[in-house]
Amino acid sequence: MDRFGLIGHPIAHSLSPALFTAAYGGKYPYDLIETPDFEEAWARFLSDYKAINVTAPFKGNAFERADWKSPECERAGATNLVVKTPDGLKAYNSDYLGVKALLEPLGGGTAAVIGFGGAGKAALAAAEDLGFSCTLYRHAEIAQGVRADVIIYTLPRFAEGADRLECAHLIEANYKDPCLSAHPGYIPGMEWLLQQAVTGYILMTGEQPDAAAMRIVFAD
Q1: Which one from 50, 59, 90, 121 is the annotated catalytic residue?
Q2: CA dihedral 4, 64, 34, 76 (to 10 degrees)
Q3: Is 154:115 a contact under the CB 8 Å cutoff?
Q4: Which candidate in 45, 100, 153, 182 could, as Cys together with 126 as Cys, close a disulfide (CB 3.0–4.6 Å)?
Q5: For 83-116, what is each residue's pLDDT tens digit?
Q6: Alpha-carbon gap, residue 45 to 6, rounded angstroms
Q7: List of domains in the chain
Q8: pTM for the structure as a whole
Q9: Does the annotation mark 59 as catalytic?
Q10: How far apart are CA 19 and CA 9, in angstroms?
């Protein structure tokens, strides 16, 4: 039986096992492969799993190890999804695909991406590819506030200036402990997670997941 999993550290809080189980009705095993040692996590993937999701701090390491990188993966410079194939290890970036799906209905204009980890790189690439005029901010650069049509906040916690973000739409990556949910036009991190999970799971299994069942996981 094909096995799937997630590598990263720490990941005990991850919703990925519940989402994957809901997506396929428990048809496939999905494990948290939790260790701070990338080499150990990678070796377990190569030994036992068909495909893995990748989260911090391993997105760059996994990107370097892949035999082939998708265009969006190359644009972001990181991967959060690696699949074994007859042609080698293929890397994708469903963070990019997920945020692109959220941005497309919003039209164009200006976009500010706050934070430049793996999620921030993916968000910046997706916004640029959709034609947004983009500005990147690291956490220390928002103290005086930020104004844009769309702001994508990828920092893991509240930073000085986060209460002075002016925009029509605000996407926050953090779904576990959101800090900006009171903002008008707020798009929660769970929507980003859901979009990237749906697109990613198709790449992992070759099968369409049950998105409605996945959404119920967030309500539990």
Answers
A1: 59
A2: -80
A3: yes
A4: 100
A5: 999 999 999 999 999 999 999 999 889 999 999 8
A6: 9
A7: 4-93+192-219 (3.40.50.10860), 97-188 (3.40.50.720)
A8: 0.86
A9: yes
A10: 19
